[in-house]
Design brief:
The complex is a heterodimer of chains A (609) and B (349). Chain A has 609 residues and is of the alpha/beta class. Chain A has four domains: 8-188, 3-Layer(aba) Sandwich (Pyruvate-ferredoxin Oxidoreductase, domain 3); 209-391, 3-Layer(aba) Sandwich (Rossmann fold); 410-482, no CATH class; 487-601, Rossmann fold (3-Layer(aba) Sandwich). Chain A has helices spanning 21-34, 83-88, 120-123, 130-148, 153-163, 168-188, 211-222, 236-249, 268-280, 291-307, 334-338, 355-372, 382-386, 410-414, 462-482, 505-517, 534-541, 556-565, 585-595, and strands spanning 8-16, 39-44, 53-61, 72-77, 90-99, 114-118, 207-210, 226-229, 261-264, 285-289, 311-317, 348-350, 375-381, 388-391, 446-447, 487-490, 496-501, 523-527, 529-530, 545-550, 572-576. In chain A, helix 7 crosses helix 8 (236-249). Chain A is globular and about 85 Å long. Chain B has 349 residues and is an alpha/beta fold. Helix content of chain B is 29%, strand content 18%. In chain B, helix 1 (38-52) packs across helix 7 and helix 3 runs parallel beside helix 5 (120-129). The N and C termini of chain B lie far apart (64 Å). In chain B, 53% of the residues are buried. The chains are: A alpha/beta (609), B alpha/beta (349). Chains A and B meet through strand 7, helix 7, helix 9, helix 10 and strand 15 of A and strand 2, helix 3, helix 5 and helix 11 of B. The complex binds thiamine diphosphate, iron/sulfur cluster and magnesium ion. Iron/sulfur cluster binds at residues 33-34, 37, 39, 68, 140, 144, 218-221 of chain B.
Chain lengths: 609, 349
Amino acid sequence: MPVGRCNEFVVRCANVNGTGSSSANALLARAFYRMGLPIAAKNIFPSNIQGLPTWYEIRVSEAGYTGRRGSADLVVAMNPQSFEEDVASVCPGGYVLYDSTKSINTARKRDDVTFLGLPFMGMVQQHTNQRKRLLFKNICYVGALAALLAIDFDVLTGLIGEQFKGKERLINQNVEALARGRDAALAAFTCPLDFHAERRDIVGDKILVTGNRACALGCVYAGATVAAWYPITPSTSIAEAFGEYCARFRVDEASGRNKFAIVQAEDELAAIGSVIGAAWNGARVFTATSGPGLSLMSEFLGLAYYAEIPAVLFDVQRTGPSTGMPTRTQQSDLIAAAYASHGDTKHVLLFPSSPKECFEFATVAFDLAERLQTPIFVMSDLDLGMNIWLSEPFAWDDSYRPDRGKVLDYAVLESGTSFYRYLDVDGDGIPYRTYPGTHPARGAYFTRGSGHDKYGFYTEDSAKYRENVDRLRRKFETAARLVPEAALEAAPGSPLGILYFGTTAEPMREALEGLSQRGIELDALRLRAFPFTEGVLRFIECHDTVFVVEQNRDAQLRTLLLAEAGIAPEKLVSILHYGGLPVTADFLIGSILEHVTPSMQRPTTGAAS
Amino acid sequence: MTYIAKPAVRNPALPKNSLGLTRRDYEGKISTLCAGCGHDSISAALIQACFDLDLPPHRLAKLSGIGCSAKTPTYFLGAAHGFNGVHGRMPSLATGANLANRDLVYIGISGDGDTASIGLGQFVHAIRRGVNMLYMVENNGTYGLTKGQFSATADVGSKSKRGEVNIYPPIDLVRLALDLGAGFVARSFSGDKDQLVPLIRGALTYPGFALIDCFSPCVTFNNHEGSTKSYTYIRGHDLPIVDLIPPRQEITVDYEPGARQEVTLHDGSRCVLRKLAGDHDLNDRAAALALIEEHRRRGELVTGLIFLDPEGQDMHMRMNTVETPLNALRYEALCPGAETLASINAELR
Ligand SMILES: Cc1ncc(C[n+]2csc(CCOP(=O)(O)OP(=O)(O)O)c2C)c(N)n1
Ligand code: SF4
Ligand SMILES: [Mg+2]
């Protein structure tokens, strides 16, 4: 992206974590959005509470590209620890805004970027409280950026007013800090810079929201009444937001009592156990976790698969174990989730790629879980879950009613309909179930792992066992017909296809345009679920080569395609991104260019539709 | 084989409870446990207690972990739903089930391995939350189903069938439960139906977490010379068991304080229970702990109702959930609707 364009730039704020920078940075991001400009905000933070470097990248893009771009046009270098690294991350011709209160070693400064020093710490000396100084220093640099980037000052003060509604003193102190920063910048530099913001009306009715909040709200709308969870970044804010919305919308007015129950369990084993217990008993219930939690849930997931109990899990994926990079993003739990547990298990996965889809897939997940009587995983990731995204507004159809699946109620049991728990009555592999306590004489059954025949009775007979697990396989085939179909995002009619999912979608949109400008056209399919749907198989069949893009080292999606769809290995070319940061369009373009030249492209009629 | 149903012979002379049900209506499939296993006596006591309380069988839910003990829910209350979960995790299943429907009566069956080892964490947290349930530990000091390894409740010096001697002190689940704030804490013995049945009745009607740590000899792996949880040991030691009279009306025993009572065990042997003469303040947690400690030093096991919190709170009271079971709330009462969503969208701009 060339520097110097109006409304096309990246600001990168480098801070020390635990200094209150995130609220200042969020204020900044929201200000651009309020000016009618599409933004992407990426919080790149350490697994630490105080003292380590953290970055907040805001991309403003009039063209509407809301994937991560990578490089920065302006760096706000507030962290001496990472100063050099931050200076190095600026594009040639870009700017570094820094705190000049204390002198900074200029020897290693670059000469292809402009340094803008302002004494931010000096601006907040009137505050005696150290914590306040840090907070207002951040607000001061937002003020300076307002001048440098032509951010509408009224928008900023408006946001402050909303944030601290009713707390006049705080509002005044914040606005004053903003003004100090702005005035200092106006006095010291030529403002605005060659790239800056200009008011537009591009975002329309779009909202700014995290995927986790969207998942939580989706659970409220889907009618979930129970949640059991154990804190783990980056999934925690799902349970927290669910609690927040329930407190607002689920308290019985007459009695003041809760129409929901949230259990912060003692660990993930207990969380999933409670989910399974509540689902067995007829509640809509979910858990939210990340990789290590999923590992702990593994045993129970096998039981839920064999005993056929609905469960909804949100797996907000991150980079591996609990030390090192747990605050970085990845799509690396695919195989762990798809085959979670002992024995012959297979699970249904959903892949949302935007907050809107997070919201919608919550309902889809509950409906599928109860229809299929099996665990459903909503596979989000840290980038989608914790960063704010520009999203289409949530929509709701008031005529929606939950699909509770094949549940026999009192009236049906009373009418004398026969009931056998694991019998395939309808030929779709899905049996009927009853909730405990339904009928005095009919419908009771004993739930256990694998040792049951089709009537639900205990057995250790191998033929009966096979009959049952073969039905489970048929049920999985039914699942492939019920899960959301993949989305064909581009179909120029190329012999080359590209398959991707989740948070790769935004940068992919940008990359496809960039490649097209270079004469390379790709048909693009966005995967939305596992097991693979008819559309995915047909897409692969119709293309000579299909790039499979995923954010993990071991090509887990490709492995699933080879194993579950019997695709010839040569046909699937992996593009893998696994450093823990969100994928960028540049990375995608570069990786695809390594494999493709315009001459590889021949006209085709075989594009999938 | 558990799939063999008991023959449905109806004897019109069988006594009926107020629901018009006989004891048979509370039974389950024929047990596949070893003949003489203490666990079967506990199942029989559960059947009796549910019958006595006039509980509609289908309004109970039975949950268990894994073990010989965990298999028993098949052998009682055939008209109730049952859930044989995973090893040591019955408490979380019961927690979830109870959250979904607070109106059912929950019976959790566990073993000493299931509770005191693999499931200790979940046991502890179910108590802490106050899940309204009867939590029955069928305690035989051994891993029955995996053939006789020591469990964490085995006494120091106890010998396994293969001749190993246990070198670690036991975990006393009753003391643990008292410490963690359980509202109803009892210890009993599978062979003492007169004590066990009333205790079960009390536990099932207690509105909170009720533990019965029930000593239940494993005739196959822990009933030999050298085991301290065998019938032989009990007989040989003239049963150092002290019984306390529970105060609740429905819990009665028919012998006087200080008296000796001969009890016939289901296998035909007899043992003697000795009740504590004098008063034990049932509602005093510290006194209960002191009492247990005092008898432990003397090498005695206190049985009976040890502690009862008359003001116990269950999980739903603590969570302030509505009276209607969460699984019975109408969807219309749960979904905020499109109009509210429009205002939520507006908040996000
Ligand atoms: C995760 C797991 N680990 C180990 C086992 C094997 N296992 C089954 S039952 C059991 C011990 C049961 O002992 P206890 O709870 O005392 O029950 P009992 O058979 O004595 O009634 C073990 C270790 C298992 N089923 N699951
Ligand atoms: S092995 Fe022991 S615990 Fe298991 S059924 Fe036999 S006697 Fe009972
Ligand atoms: Mg045992």
